[in-house]
From TrEMBL:
Record NCBIfam families: aroC, PRK05382.1
Function according to Swiss-Prot or TrEMBL: This reaction introduces a second double bond into the aromatic ring system.
Alphabetic keyword roster: Amino-acid biosynthesis, Aromatic amino acid biosynthesis, FAD, Flavoprotein, FMN, Lyase, NADP
Protein name (record): Chorismate synthase
PANTHER family for the chain: CHORISMATE SYNTHASE
HAMAP family: Chorismate_synth (MF_00300)
């Protein structure tokens, strides 16, 4: 299986399976002399790890990350990167492969079971193997390293919609994101989501969600106008996250409803004579290059495919069957996709920062 890496100068390769002994990643291209310890990474791992509320899978994984290479302690006792590949590992401690024994030869609707078997002639039925969202834990770890590269850039994400229920954007408060289990910036919406998702969870069903990722402090000039567009790489990064079915930058699909007058981000000079955009319909990117405004990316996550309602399918032998997926699953996988979206934004921006630095000198 190829294509386990992403990025150019800041390059991340992940490895491991959902029910294997461990998962990990190798971060290549991180500059030397950047202070980096496990503690710098662990805080972000805590945001994504399972079992933190009744609204996520009850698989219990501590997700304690270990740095295996790429750092050393200097004469002042500070652990710093050496510029060599950084290898990170997380042990799996709470696998329950027996939960999947009944679907060993059955293709779960909505999952990658059928397509993996069609491509490789084999699949890891234990939680999906490489296709499992468990792999995204290492993206979060890599994203923590990327943030250390991105001095002066702030990356935050929030859940802005669960099922048909959207937040009230006039009530957006970043401080609320850490005060509820949904990473929701609207306290009232979070309260109503709790009751709604509780019903979905008890029914053994699932719903989708929309996540918004915002990066502030990115200067104008990152990206390239043709095949290295910043928004192209951001879109690909978000689309690579498990269960993501749509990505938009700035106004996204809403831009199709606007006139040229409404959509144009007009420019004036600020109080110190610097260019200032009066709106940010573009989401911080023009012609594939950052314009200095906040980068705004949204992505839509489909409902978790593992549900307790039987769905029609077939076996690997061509028999028609009904499939009900048991085990521990997220009623809304979009909740834990919030820190993953932040991580992918960080990795893309670290890559573009290094590419821009290499071009301009």
């Amino acid at each position: 299986m190829s294509h386990n890496s992403f990025g150019h100068l800041f390059r991340v390769t992940t490895w491991g399976e959902s029910h294997g002994p461990a998962i990990g990643c190798v971060v290549d291209g991180c500059p030397p002399l950047i202070p980096l310890t496990e503690a710098d990474i662990q805080g972000f791992m805590e945001k994504r790890k399972p079992g933190q509320s009744k609204y996520t899978t009850q698989r219990r994984e501590p997700d304690e990350v270990k740095i295996l290479s790429g750092v050393m302690v200097d004469e002042d006792g500070i652990q710093k990167t050496t510029g060599t590949p950084i290898s990170l590992m997380v042990e799996n401690t709470d696998q329950r492969s027996k939960d999947y024994s009944e679907i060993k030869d059955r293709f779960r609707p909505g999952h990658a079971d059928f397509t993996y078997d069609a491509k490789y002639g084999i699949r890891d039925y234990r939680g999906g193997g490489r296709s499992s969202a468990r792999e995204t834990a290492m993206r979060v770890a890599a994203g923590a390293v990327a943030r250390k590269v991105l001095q002066g850039v702030t990356i935050r994400a929030a859940l802005v919609q669960i099922g048909p229920h959207k937040i009230d954007r006039s009530k957006w408060d970043w401080a609320q994101v850490e005060n509820n289990p949904f990473f929701c910036p609207d306290a009232d919406a979070a309260a109503s989501w709790a009751d709604y998702l509780d019903g979905v969870r008890k029914a053994g069903s699932s719903v989708g969600a929309v996540i918004e990722v915002v990066a502030e402090g990115v200067p104008a000039g990152w990206g390239a106008p043709i095949y290295g567009k910043l928004d192209t790489d951001l879109s690909a990064a978000m689309m690579s996250i498990n269960a993501v079915k749509g990505v938009e930058i700035g106004n996204g699909f809403e831009a199709a409803t606007l006139t040229g007058e409404d959509n144009a981000d007009e420019i004036r000079l600020d109080d110190v004579g610097q260019p200032m955009f009066l709106t940010n319909h573009s989401g911080g990117v023009l012609g594939g290059i950052s314009n200095g405004d906040p980068l705004v990316v949204r992505f839509a996550v489909k409902p978790t495919s593992s549900i307790l309602t039987e769905r029609k399918s077939i076996t690997s032998k061509g028999e028609e069957v009904d499939v009900m997926t048991k085990g521990r699953h997220d009623p809304c996988v979009g909740i834990r996709a919030v820190p993953v979206g932040e991580a992918m934004m960080a990795c893309v921006l670290a890559d573009h920062f290094l590419r821009h630095r290499g071009q301009v000198g």
